[in-house]
Structure formats: C-alpha cells, structure tokens
Design goal:
Elements lengths: L2 E3 L5 H12 L4 E2 L12 E2 L1 E2 L5 H15 L2 H7 L1 E4 L3 E5 L4 E5 L4 E3 L6 E3 L2 E6 L7 E2 L2 E5 L2 E5 L6 E5 L4 E3 L2 E3 L2 E10 L4 H20 L4 H17 L3
Antiparallel strand pairs: 1-14, 2-4, 3-7, 4-6, 5-17, 6-17, 7-15, 8-9, 10-14, 10-17, 11-16, 12-13, 12-15
Helix pairs in contact: 4-5
C-alpha cells in the first residue's frame, strides 16, 4: 500500500526543522549503508548519534502518534528512530530494497522493516529531480510531496531516489515494524477502517457499524504478531 500522509508537520515545525538541517554537519550517506547498497547510494546523512537527529526525530515521532492516517495504515508496533538525509549536486540513490532487520540504537532490540516512510522537508519547486520512485505490481510510482507531508510504502518495495540536479532535497526516512506483517492484510484493515469511519459519520445508528467494527478487531486479532 502506497499512501500519502498529508500535513504530518505544521508549517512552523517544517520551518524549525529546515533551519536546523541547513546548519547541520553532514556525513557521507554511504557510512550507514550496507556493502551492496553503498554502491548505489550518493547522498549526505546526519550521523545516527547526532543530537539533532534525536531532537528532530522525536518531533517526527510525536507527529506520527497524533496522525490517524499513519496509525491506521501502519498499525505500528515499533518505529526505528527517524534518520535524515540531504541530496544535492546530482546526488541520488539507485534501486534497492531496504534491510529486513534493523537494530535499535543503544538497544539489543531488533526491528523488522514492514513499512517504509519518507517525510519531505523541501517543497517540490525548491529542487529538480529527487523523486522517490517506488515499484509495485502496477509499475513505477514517482512521489515528490510538499514539505511536511509523508509517504508510506511496503518495506519490501524496490525503490530509488532520482538525481537532484538543482537545489537541495531534505527528508527524513525510517521504518516501522507493524502489528500486522502482511501489506495485503494491512491494506484490507485500512480500507475496512475507512469504511467504518465513513458509516459512523453518515449513518451513526446503522446496525452494520457494530458488526463491521467487530469484524475489524477479529481480523486484527487473527493477523497481529506480538
């Protein structure tokens, strides 16, 4: 499921993050890539232990916690602390699939990357190129969202970032281990959730709402992995 999360961050939050990111000290993004991925990766990244990464990452996590769309679509169990990257001067990231398992920093805990998320901190008109291109069974989907918006997509997806030939593309990226491992199951639950919400608004007393809500929770009980 490829889904846009609109207005995840407020304009003031975006402005705060951008000012900090523009003044930050960046390192070669290949420092955090695996042996094979490093050959396809050409960007800059905040060091994982950088205080700014923790500060801005917490801001993003707080926004996610209050986003009904993200919570309903991702059904998060654990979220890896957000990371931050910068593309400019032709920087790009060739087609790749993210690692299946990540270690949580400072912890022995491991996180499975069921859902990938990118949060944009640059508006589309600020840079040329830099589209996130995600492949699925329906072809390739190029994504370039306004600052403050996010895109989620299956961690199993082949994807890339096209070369940034003008300007600078700032973004955050991270992975979520979902309560529900299967993207197909998550998509079904999300559609069912939206249907229940719509019925609640349009026909609050309809008997079907209780039955559908029960079906939703029974499916969630069936598919949840804890």
């Amino acid at each position: 499921m490829l889904l846009t999360i609109p207005d995840l961050l407020t304009p003031d939050q975006v402005k705060q993050c951008r000012k900090a990111l523009e003044q930050a000290d960046w390192i070669d993004g290949r420092a955090t890539a695996g042996h094979i991925s490093a050959r396809a990766k050409d960007n800059l990244q905040l060091p994982l232990d950088h205080p700014l990464a923790a500060e801005l990452g917490n801001l993003v996590l707080q926004a996610l916690a209050t986003s009904p769309a993200f919570m309903a679509a991702a059904l998060p169990l654990r979220i890896l602390p957000p990371r931050f990257n910068r593309y400019e001067g032709g920087g790009n990231y060739g087609f790749h699939i993210d690692n299946a398992i990540f270690h949580a920093p400072g912890s022995p805990q491991r996180i499975r990357s069921d859902v990938s998320t990118t949060v944009f901190f640059s508006d589309p008109e600020e840079y040329e190129g830099g589209e996130l291109v995600v492949q699925d069974t329906y072809g390739e989907h190029a994504v370039k969202l306004p600052a403050g918006q996010a895109i989620i997509y299956p961690g199993t997806s082949l994807h890339r970032v096209t070369p940034v030939t003008r300007g600078v593309r700032f973004a955050s990226f991270f992975w979520t281990q979902s309560l529900v491992r299967s993207d197909t199951h998550r998509a079904l639950l999300y559609d069912l959730d939206l249907t229940i919400q719509r019925l609640t608004v349009e026909e609050a007393s309809h008997d079907a709402i209780s039955r559908l809500t029960g079906t939703y929770h029974n499916l969630l009980r069936l598919w949840t992995e804890l």
